[in-house]
Each structure stands twice: as structure tokens, then as C-alpha cells.
Design goal:
The protein is an alpha+beta fold. 42% of the residues lie in helices and 22% in strands.
Length: 381
């Protein structure tokens, strides 16, 4: 599975097989969903079993064994030195299991009333975040997020400030329904309208262009807001992300990894100027909802001081990914891309390279050789 990983502090990675995954988890048919890897430090495998998810951790030294001694619900695999935890157990997110166990009791504080049923897991990133979809007894839908490092009370204040600043602009943000800071939980009302990724394929290509133009205008309103996000996505931070993406890509395909290393060297050599404005910093097609003339942006936890061209480049790269995966017709993607390119600055190619690397990493993290052609096409933008 990881034949190309030559990591002396985690030698078991190179020898790992699907049979090892089944033994580590105790579940036949365990499949790899995503992977993260930091050379010489750790690797985490997000895995799926029958009706369940979990995480397998590899560490330098004997950290996995020490964690297993401290965490009764964890499994330690002596053969590989790996640590396994079944969701919702997560040593990096110890409050996650508390929420899952107590969700129905916590519902009134988070979503303002009795829940219709238990929260439905939408997305899990081991050690980083979990997102749930939750329906209240009256049919209203909410989205619950938990991250180990997000000060949710401050996030709620930030969303309120953005809502005030956006009045009359056509830009909106999903309102916060409730927070539980001691559990790191924040609940959002569902956004109005349809997500951009669902709108782009339908109707004529011209309509796709109009939809993207509306989203770009909403972003332009965000970029001019009188707010100062706490995060900074400057040149050094973007290059650091590019390095991490290149390392992950090399894990799936060493040849492409060499090419991405050259792309990173090009980023380091070019003196691109990064204008610091409030930007979304994680723009995906599904993060913008359109309802008439109003555009709602979601997943604002990534809000940063950065360059507007990075938001545009992320949209550009995501358009390419959707086209490659057959989710959007080429004509519709081209119409939407033309609206993006109308607003780019002189250093846009530099930011597009950053975004291409991040999007290619999406395929690389699946560690599926079948995705290598997709990854290479994204990088060839």
C-alpha cells in the first residue's frame, strides 16, 4: 500500500497491506478512505469498516504504545506498532465521544429544541474535525461542528460581525444556532438555496457563468469587509501548504511527486506579492449557496487574512476537479472559469499553482492508483 514510503522511524508503513488493516481494526474488509502523512513524525489513516469509521495512527518512537496503555478503548497492533481507534473515539478529539453519547440531552442548547433523532455524521477527519447533520423535531436542519482547536465562542462572534458587515450587500453567512464551548461544539442553521456545485451542471452554460459571477461578487464583498481575521495565510504559509501537498502526492506517485517538488521550487523562487484581505481561504463549490440574488458562504472557520487571488484560484482548481470527475460539463466549467478569470490579479498564476497542489492532494490522500490520472490533470491546469 505504501511501497514508496522510506521512513526509518515508521518502517511498518512501507510493508502495510490490506490484511494488516483488517488485523489492526479487527474488521474484515477494512478499506482506506484518506491518509495524512508527515515524514518522520506520524501518519494517520482514515478507514472504513462495515457501517463504521475509525483511524489508524503511526508515530515515531513508542507513542502509540503509550497511548494504548492510557486509552482503554484503543487497540495497539504489536506487528506494525499502529494504534487503532473506532469512531467516535479520538485521542486528539477526546470530547467527540462525549458529544455522541450525550447528543440528545445537548440538543436544546445547540439547536434550540428536541432533536428528531441522533446526529448524522457527514464528515470526519481524524484528529481534526467532525461535522454532523442534525434535524430538530420541527424538521429544521442544522450542522454541528467540533474541532479541537476552534474557539467556538469567538467563532460565533466572528459570524455575527460578518453578518452585520454584510447587510445590504447580497452576501450572507449561515447563522450560528448555539455553542457549547466546553465541548468545542458550534451549531449552524442550514444555508438557504442551492450549493454552487449542484447549480453549475444544470441549465445552459450561460447560467453557470451567471451563478459563478454572483459568487465572485459575494467574495469581493467579503474581501472588502472591515474585519481582521485571526489567521494569516501569507506567502510562507502558502508555501508550507504546498510542501505538505507535494509530500502527500509523492506518497501516491513518486514521479508526480518529483514534478510537484519542482512546482514548489518555482513558488519559492518567484517573488509574488500577497495582499492581505479577509478571505474565505477554503473556497469549494459546495461552500457557496445561492438563493435568488443572495449568496451564503459556509465553513467560515477558515477565514484568514490572505490574497483574494487564492480564493479565486481555489474555485478555479475545484472547477477543474469537477470537470475531470464528470460532475460538470466542460462548457459549463469554461463559462464559470471565465467569470473567475475576470477578477484575477497579476500574480494569479502563483496562487493557482498553490491551489492546484492542494486540489491534487485531494486525490493523493485516497492513495488509489486509479486517481493518478485525475491528479496529473489537475496539476496540468
Amino acid at each position: 500500500m505504501f511501497d514508496h514510503v522510506l521512513d526509518p522511524v515508521m518502517p511498518a508503513l512501507q510493508r502495510l497491506t490490506p490484511d494488516d488493516l483488517a488485523r489492526i481494526t479487527g474488521a474484515p474488509g477494512t478499506r482506506l478512505l484518506r491518509a495524512r502523512y508527515k515524514p518522520g513524525a506520524r501518519a494517520v489513516l482514515h478507514v472504513g469498516m462495515a457501517g463504521q469509521e475509525g483511524s489508524i495512527w503511526f508515530f515515531a518512537g513508542d507513542k502509540a504504545l503509550k497511548l494504548a496503555h492510557r486509552l482503554p478503548e484503543a487497540r495497539h497492533d504489536a506487528s506494525t506498532g499502529a494504534l487503532f481507534q473506532a469512531f467516535p473515539q479520538d485521542h486528539r478529539m477526546p470530547l467527540l465521544a462525549n458529544f455522541v453519547a450525550s447528543a440528545m440531552v445537548l440538543a436544546p442548547q445547540l439547536i434550540g429544541g428536541r432533536a428528531l433523532s441522533s446526529p448524522q455524521l457527514m464528515r470526519y477527519r481524524p484528529g481534526l474535525s467532525a461535522t454532523f447533520r442534525w434535524t430538530r423535531h420541527d424538521g429544521r436542519v442544522f450542522f454541528i461542528k467540533q474541532t479541537p482547536d476552534n474557539p467556538v465562542a469567538a467563532q460565533a462572534v466572528s459570524v455575527a460581525q460578518m453578518q452585520d458587515a454584510a447587510v445590504g450587500t447580497g452576501l450572507a453567512f449561515a447563522p450560528v444556532a448555539g455553542t457549547l464551548p466546553h465541548l468545542g461544539l458550534i451549531a449552524y442553521h442550514s444555508a438557504k438555496g442551492q450549493p454552487l456545485d449542484a447549480m453549475l451542471p444544470g441549465g445552459p452554460a450561460l447560467q453557470a457563468g451567471h451563478a459563478m459571477a454572483q459568487v465572485v461578487q459575494a467574495l469581493r464583498n467579503l474581501w472588502s469587509m472591515p474585519i481582521v481575521p485571526g489567521r494569516v495565510l501569507d506567502r510562507a504559509a502558502l508555501i508550507a501548504r504546498a510542501v505538505q501537498a507535494s509530500q502527500m502526492i509523492a506518497l501516491l506517485d513518486p514521479q508526480t511527486g518529483l514534478e510537484t517538488a519542482q512546482l514548489v521550487a518555482g513558488l519559492e523562487a518567484r517573488a509574488a506579492r500577497v495582499r492581505l484581505r479577509p478571505i474565505h481561504a477554503d473556497m469549494k463549490l459546495e461552500h457557496a449557496f445561492l438563493s435568488g440574488p443572495e449568496t451564503t458562504l459556509i465553513d467560515m472557520e477558515s477565514l484568514s487574512l490572505g490574497d483574494p487571488d487564492y480564493d479565486l484560484a481555489k474555485l478555479d482548481a475545484r472547477l477543474a476537479m469537477a470537470e475531470i470527475m464528470g460532475q460538470i460539463p466542460a462548457s459549463h466549467a469554461a463559462a464559470a472559469r471565465s467569470e473567475v478569470l475576470r477578477h484575477v490579479g497579476p500574480d494569479y498564476p502563483w496562487f493557482l499553482t498553490c491551489a492546484r497542489l492542494q486540489t491534487a492532494k485531494f486525490f493523493a490522500q485516497r492513495l488509489d492508483p486509479a486517481t493518478i490520472p485525475h491528479m496529473r490533470r489537475v496539476l496540468a491546469l
